[in-house]
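Q: Give me a protein?
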Amino acid sequence: MNSSENYYSAAIIIDYEELCLQTVYFKAPNIKETILSLEAFAKECKSIADRNGIEYDTFSLLNFLKNLVMTIPFETVFLDFLVHINYSLYKSRFFDHFKVVLINEYMHHVEKSLSTAIKTATELDGKTLSASIKTSIELDDKDRSISVQAETILKKFLKVFRVLKPDPELSYENLVQYEFLAELLKVCYSVDIQNSHLIVSLLKLTINRYVSDVSGIAYVRQPNYPHGFFKYILNHVTRGKFDLVQYCSKHSGTLWDYSRNFSVMYAASFGNAERVLCLLQHGFDIFPDYEARYSGHGHTHIKEIMSRTNCMVLQMMSRMRLVNSFTSESSPIPENGYYITTPVQEECFRLIWRALPDPYVTRFQLALDISTEYFYLALHAIFRPLRHNRNMILAAMYETCFEDIALGPPEPRDLKHLCRWTIRKRLSQTRSLPSGVFQLGLPKSLERYLNLESD
């Protein structure tokens, strides 16, 4: 081979290595800086070694560079694989973030649309959505247009939510989603939207929102709902045949604090007789499963010994005692603490028995169940003296506050009451409470009795 051929072959090799480097730099730009640094380091080592007459083997380093240059272009599939892996890892996060931005932008658009519609219909100048909905709006036939406009906007909003399917778990930065949904329910009440399916859909979205970091709950802004909002939601829940209590129990971490207002136990503990009666008339469960689990002994592998009704009584006394410990309406007993219920709490407790078929709980039955539970747990090597003592104190509170019931004979309820309970149970199974009571063609006195208005 002559010199020209050798030169040509060397040029091809040099060009090929240069081409390989360019390919590597194109495929993996981040590698370029590393390769240049290694080349500079190798040249510096060789220069120092030659200048000082030191034997320094740079062959291995140069060979590594050569192999790196020669092999990486043929392993671009591997580089593409790494890129694909990183893309897959961050793709879902990227799209989640993109959805959040998109939803927030759309919520802002919906807010402006609703504000414009409300301002136009009510002639409220310069007020935002939150300011507009605070105004009491009395709608007549001519003003129904605002309700129709708002309903159309909200239907589109729900459709967008169904398409995007945002994550119900919110971060601190995304709490605005919950706050907006909770505010929309207030808008529905203000403009008197009567589409129960739409209201229930908004309720589900609102209740679904939660945060994994409970420390962020303190920063959540809860809307201040007007007085009639409770009955408004209650009517739509009943009309839409939606089990609100059951749904809330499945989403116990919900950010929607207002859901507690639909708990009979919660309303009774605060002495809200009107709300207790309203919930009972609509067939709400007095002592749902999640309440029973919360008030049980807490060991899932051991069956509950205490009857559900007795457990309900103790839980009710505990709640009332807790509420009274933070109020000044009750008169505490110095040696025992707050063991006296208020008159409104007593009224609520007696209202609850109108909706129960069980015989009244006596003090003796409570004490027997409490002791039986204690010794049954002891047989399983579980000793709960504090729970036993606490329950005995609550039983004493029950006897003190409801002496006529607690010390009465353990007799079954009268036949008239059991008939009322049976009829209401059948109506409740068909989601016909309370409207079904007034469709039976009964005399007014029986309607009132069946609707729990009299005893």
In short: The first helix runs from residue 3 to 27. Residues 7-14, 124-128, 132-139, 334-338 have pLDDT under 50 and may be disordered.
